């Protein structure tokens, strides 16, 4: 067995590096929190001891095996984002199976979700908790959930009032990194295609704006209407922009389906990708690997979102008075072939002779 050592006081980042796990996992092991396998827990404790890290005894929170309902928007599940929510549901199901819990998926109309509908679902299923998957509940529903003390986790959602446990991708930072990638490639006039219908998506807009402001680049935000046919509507919007010929050379799309539509419009105008125009997506959906050239995008670990949500539910049931937790999972750049170094100035940047 290999022993490890350091010449300085050890930190959790050191334990994570030697154990081959995340810092979050180390933190949870040292806090005796549930949802960590015995092998990983033993490995982290062993390495922490070898490094001389001081481990304080913490009463273990007994893991709970919830019987929980997962409410999923029917429009999202049956539309182009179905694969996104399938991944999240797979993470929830996998975590439930490993811990002896029960997951009960239900498709709902999120735009008309009412307290009475949830009450009926809880009565029919005898559930002890509820996952709101891709749903931003209205104020009256939030008030009822808080008053009822029903364990609730927002999945792929952010509670702006910090009253509920929630887990989502790092939308702000991911969008900032995506935009910075275009800027680093030399682009100075960049479009952003979005819908901004949810708080999580507005975080991507903020990330785009933050990177653009930091670097002083020109931008334009293109808003598609909520409920639009994402790919075809993005294609039509991009067609109109190309007709205007405003000198943009790159676009960051809020998801890969929009990026596919944008690429279609560019192809229709006989523009080469990425030589004439760069395209950046987000989510790393299967369609990103089907484009020609392969779409450059940001990978979202959808199953990990579901797994983290299930752990949050276990924690909430075990300790109802615990402070709410907001978890953001890192996203990473997937280097496709739709972004490359850009040297040709746009028309608006060229100086007349």
From TrEMBL:
CDD domains noted in UniProt: HTH_LacI (cd01392), PBP1_LacI_sugar_binding-like (cd06267)
Species for this entry: Microvirga mediterraneensis
Xref: PROSITE patterns: HTH_LACI_2
Gene Ontology molecular function: any one: transcription cis-regulatory region binding
SMART domains from the UniProt entry: HTH_LACI
Keywords assigned: DNA-binding, Transcription, Transcription regulation
Organism superkingdom: Bacteria
Domain HTH lacI-type: 10-73
Bilayer-spanning residue ranges: none
Protein name (database record): LacI family DNA-binding transcriptional regulator
């Amino acid at each position: 067995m290999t022993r490890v050592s350091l010449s300085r006081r050890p930190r959790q980042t050191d334990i994570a590096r030697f154990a081959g796990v995340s810092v979050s996992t180390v933190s949870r092991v040292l806090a005796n929190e549930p949802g960590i396998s015995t092998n990983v827990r033993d490995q982290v404790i062993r390495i922490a001891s070898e490094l001389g890290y001081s481990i304080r005894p913490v009463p273990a929170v007994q893991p709970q095996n919830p019987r929980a309902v997962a409410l999923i928007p029917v429009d999202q599940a049956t539309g182009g984002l179905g694969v996104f929510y399938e991944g999240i549901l797979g993470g929830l199901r996998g975590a439930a199976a490993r811990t002896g819990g029960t997951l009960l998926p239900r498709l709902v109309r999120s735009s008309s979700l009412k307290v009475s509908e949830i009450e009926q679902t809880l009565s029919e299923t005898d559930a002890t908790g509820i996952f709101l998957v891709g749903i931003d509940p209205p104020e009256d529903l939030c008030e009822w959930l808080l008053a009822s003390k029903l364990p609730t986790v927002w999945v792929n959602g952010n509670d702006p009032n910090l009253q509920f446990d929630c887990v989502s991708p790092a939308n702000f930072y991911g969008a900032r990194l995506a935009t910075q990638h275009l800027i680093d490639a030399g682009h100075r006039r960049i479009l952003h295609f979005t819908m901004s219908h949810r708080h999580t998506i507005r975080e991507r807009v903020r990330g785009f704006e933050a990177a653009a402001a930091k670097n002083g680049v020109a931008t334009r935000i293109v808003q598609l209407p909520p409920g639009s046919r994402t790919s075809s509507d993005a294609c039509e919007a991009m067609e109109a922009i190309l007709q205007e010929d405003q000198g943009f050379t790159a676009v960051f799309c809020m998801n890969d389906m929009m990026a596919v539509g944008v690429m279609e419009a560019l192809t229709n105008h006989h523009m080469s990708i990425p030589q004439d125009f760069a395209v950046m997506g987000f989510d790393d959906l299967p369609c990103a690997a089907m484009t020609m050239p392969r779409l450059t995008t940001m990978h979202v670990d959808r199953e990990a979102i579901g797994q983290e949500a299930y752990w949050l539910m276990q924690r909430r049931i075990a300790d109802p008075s615990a402070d709410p937790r907001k978890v953001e999972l890192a996203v990473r750049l997937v280097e496709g072939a739709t972004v490359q170094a850009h040297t040709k100035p746009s028309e608006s940047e060229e100086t007349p002779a």
